[in-house]
């Protein structure tokens, strides 16, 4: 029997329920995000050897020097991006293992996710297909440029820290759309940029810790 798919022990629905309880205690309020995280089998997005740790509040290695984000981080980014309403079209920069794209797909009409490391992207594509995330499209691209051909987006979520806000991303927001990104090098904060009829509005939120946004593609 394939234990990874059987829902036994550390990978069970109950383990996921406890993760969601901890997220609630840590201050996540958006029930739509919490129920998305209750549904998505996070253990399927990490190596089999690490599957038993998938629901701990840690970031785990996914190869190529990259990590799967903490459950809290994913919840917080999704909560800020959703801002109380389900977005239509969403762009994620930094697919990694694909977990956050899967969570976003539960409450968004369509999710586009770009990743610069080709092998990470192919694994994520397989996993997203396995769990039947039909409204997610992944693409091998440098997220600095957004995804012009399908823009505009109601929300753009970056999973890697930038040193400045890429202009292409704010240009690809709908009116009322929000870009959520970690910004800074040693000290990082979450920044929310909202496109309004009168221009861009910025708001600084939590202290965070993300891998850096890199430039160009990797094979
Ligand atoms: N969303 C993931 C987190 C991935 S970590 C999750 O669900 O856990 C951040 C990812 O951003 C890494 O996979 C890294 O390769 C990718 N990344 C860094 N710079 C990038 C860029 N310029 N364009 C696209 N992806 C980038």
Essential attributes:
219 residues, alpha/beta, two-stranded antiparallel sheet, globular, binds S-adenosyl-L-homocysteine
Figure out the total of helices.
7
Beta-strand content? 25-35%
Integer tally of domains:
1
Give helix and strand order, one letter per element, not per position: HHHEEHEHEHEEHEEE
| Unreliable parts | none
Task: Give the biggest sheet.
Answer: 7 strands, mixed
Radius of gyration: 16 Å
Identify every distinct bound molecule in the structure, by name, code or SMILES: S-adenosyl-L-homocysteine
Which class do the helix and strand fractions yield?
alpha/beta
Under the CATH scheme, the architecture is 3-Layer(aba) Sandwich
Helix % is 25-40%
Strand order of the largest sheet: 5-4-3-6-7-8-9
The CATH homologous superfamily corresponds to Vaccinia Virus protein VP39
At the first level of CATH, what is the class? Alpha Beta
Principal-axis shape? globular
**CATH topology group:** Rossmann fold
Q: How far is it from the N-terminal to the C-terminal residue, by CA?
A: 35 Å
Mean pLDDT: 93
Number of strands: 9
Descriptive overview:
- With 219 residues, this protein is an alpha/beta fold.
- The protein has one domain (3-208): Vaccinia Virus protein VP39 (Rossmann fold, 3-Layer(aba) Sandwich), CATH 3.40.50.150.
- It is 29% helix and 27% strand.
- It has helices at residues 3-6, 13-25, 31-39, 71-82, 99-105, 118-130, 167-171; strands at residues 60-63, 66-68, 89-93, 110-115, 136-140, 153-158, 173-183, 188-196, 199-208.
- A seven-stranded mixed sheet has the order 5-4-3-6-7-8-9. Strands 1-2 form a two-stranded antiparallel sheet.
- α2 (13-25) packs antiparallel against α3.
- It is globular.
- The relative contact order is 0.13.
- The protein binds S-adenosyl-L-homocysteine.
């Amino acid at each position: 029997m394939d234990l990874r798919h059987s829902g036994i022990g550390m990978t069970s629905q109950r383990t996921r329920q406890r993760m969601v309880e901890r997220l609630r205690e840590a201050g996540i309020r958006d029930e739509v995000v919490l129920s998305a995280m209750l549904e998505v089998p996070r253990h399927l997005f990490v190596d089999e050897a690490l599957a038993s740790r998938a629901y701990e509040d840690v970031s785990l290695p996914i190869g190529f020097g990259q990590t799967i984000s903490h459950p809290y981080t994913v919840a917080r980014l999704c909560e800020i991006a959703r801002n109380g309403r389900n977005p239509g079209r969403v762009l994620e920069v930094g697919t990694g293992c694909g977990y956050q794209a899967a969570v976003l797909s539960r409450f968004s009409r369509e999710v586009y996710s770009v990743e610069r490391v080709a092998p990470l992207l192919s694994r994520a594509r397989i996993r997203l297909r396995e769990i039947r995330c039909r409204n997610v499209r992944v693409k091998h691209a440098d997220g600095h440029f957004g995804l012009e051909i399908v823009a505009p987006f109601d929300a753009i979520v970056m999973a890697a820290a930038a040193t400045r806000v890429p202009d292409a991303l704010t240009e690809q927001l709908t009116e009322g759309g929000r870009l959520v990104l970690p910004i800074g090098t040693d000290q990082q904060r979450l920044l929310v940029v909202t496109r309004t009829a009168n221009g861009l509005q910025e708001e600084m939120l939590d202290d965070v810790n993300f891998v850096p946004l890199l430039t160009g593609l990797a094979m």
